[in-house]
Amino acid sequence: MIQTSNSTYDWVASTFEVFEKNLNGEAQTNVHALRKHAMERFAVIGFPTTRDEEWRFTNVAPIAKTCFSPVLAYSRGATAADIERLSFARLRSHRLVFVNGHFSSELSSLESLPHGVIIGSLAAALKSHDDLVNQHIGKYASTEKDAFTALNTAFLRDGAFISIPDKVVLEDPIHLLFISTGSDDSFVSHPRNLVLIGKQSQISIVERYVGLKNNVYLTNAVTEILAGENSVLEHDKLQDESTNAFHVSSLHVHQLEHSNLVSNSISFGGALARNNVTSMLAAEGVECTLNGLSLATGRQHVDNHTTIDHSSSHCNSHELYKSILDEKARGVFNGKIFVRKDAQKTDAKQTNKTLLLSDEATIDTKPQLEIFADDVKCTHGATVGQLDDEQIFYLRSRGIGETDAKDILTFAFASDVINRVHVEALRNQLDAMIQARLRQGRLSESVE
Fold first, then answer.
1. How far apart are CA 134 and CA 132, in angstroms?
2. Which of 185, 187, 352, 357 supports an S-S bond with 326, CB 3.0-4.6 Å?
3. Last residue of some domain: 283, 302, 326?
4. Is 295 contained in some domain?
5. Which long-range contacts (CB under 8 A, 24 or more apart) does 126-130 make?
6. Which residue, among 341, 262, 351, 332, has the nearest Cα to 309 in the 3D structure?
7. What is the per-residue pLDDT across 45-79, written as a single tens digit (0 to 9) for each?
């Protein structure tokens, strides 16, 4: 990391001062001490550059040079019609809506909940359940080395708070919808989500990030999850920001004994997107599955960084990340698997595959294994290629046009990940979005 320039830091520091003045008496709370420490860390580490190994292929200078204004309070910018359009067809869910990072009670909808279940705003939970929040907030997402996590923590104000007691199976998914609305000025939102899952409980969470207008903004989101013993979690994240937006997100999951995590990360939008997914396998018998799919075109840049930390024995992890890149799009995949000394009987598999639809699209892929135990089974691999001419020829010989043949093969490549999404309404929506992207590509080619 390098020191942030004086002008950039001065801007961030001045906006933090304004932020503090809007806290209305919260300056003496435990969480504000966390904010101030995060701000101090950001002053030390600054924004990353391409000289930083973790950011070698992703240049965040456009973010660092832009004076993004934080949205300090909720204001109406989305309508019920927007929510209906952005909701998944036939998905019965517990829906929380956030507009520019702030909770909207009028646009949210919660079905009846089992006793003891809390689903709501983090800002409200900081007042009504402050002991529980303070026990966990900032424990799983570290601010020590990550500038964007430090910034999110410094400006921590609102997001989703989910607390699930022991032995609860929530039938309907929890839908977290984050909407960025139009503004004349560049703005930033820092959603912070905290999820606590009790022993032997089971839930599904769908996070979706969208923009209503094609303006310049930054979404800098952090989600922390504690998965209790024998709990089951599917976490599906759909990033569909505006094409001029910047999106940086970090998911940190701390898994306890025999917990089971499935994470599906899907990226379609944004000019520059960075998705960090980290899971700590902190006790025996943990199952961790990370899946990802990125579709990028034009000059989009999508960076997926994953870390699976096997710190205990008898744990399994499975990882499949795919990218489809067209025109001058660029993708990055960096997947780390750590197997600690005491993590015997580890079984870890990692696969990264990229489909390049043009000669100018590029991918930088770096699968990594660091193994300090001797009784393990670990594999990793990466492939980069284009559509198979023989497969295209086969389909054309069956009377299918060349463009349709390419679409069929591209869709099949993506479906390998999409079919791993268990929430049917989301899976159907993703299928439709991919098909629409393929049609859009054909229309742009015909215009040219």
1. 6
2. 357
3. 283
4. no
5. 126/26, 126/29, 126/31, 129/161, 129/163, 130/29, 130/30, 130/31
6. 341
7. 999 999 999 999 999 999 999 989 899 888 888 99
